[in-house]
Amino acid sequence: MGKGFKMAYFKKFPIILNYLMGGNSYTVVDVAKRSFYINPLFKNPSYYIEYDLKEGDTPVILADKLYDDVELAWVILHFNEIVDYYNEWPMEQESLVQYIVNTYDDPYARHHSVSIQTGNFVQVEHPAYDRLDVSNYEYETEMNDEKRSIRLIRTDYIGDYVNMHDEEAERL
Q: What pTM was computed for the model?
């Protein structure tokens, strides 16, 4: 995601002096401490916009387009409570297909079934007239697509959000 993104975000973390590893002493960032606090003010929809991620969107690209600052990519992840970018951000179509092929012996085999009337999971013994089989491919595609809906802080509030986060990070 880019060196600038990582460095800007980690500047807010506490430092561990003399961290011992392999007989050597290091100064490292304490990544175990993380601000999860999001001021309730920012839960108000007037402070953010709903956005559906498109193919190729990354936090860095969005921060550059929206805030004209790639170093604010961490804000997009933090505000959406994304801790693990590689598992919580949607995959590109090519990566998704590769993941499905590598994960399942048969990507088009039945993953599960749902009731056509209710949408609830049902057993394979459920009456065929009210059962829809969902393939591994369809399931993984749906799971990936659910990650596409995010919230972006409006540009006129980004400074306030960063300042509130910095204040919280100083208390860690």
A: 0.76
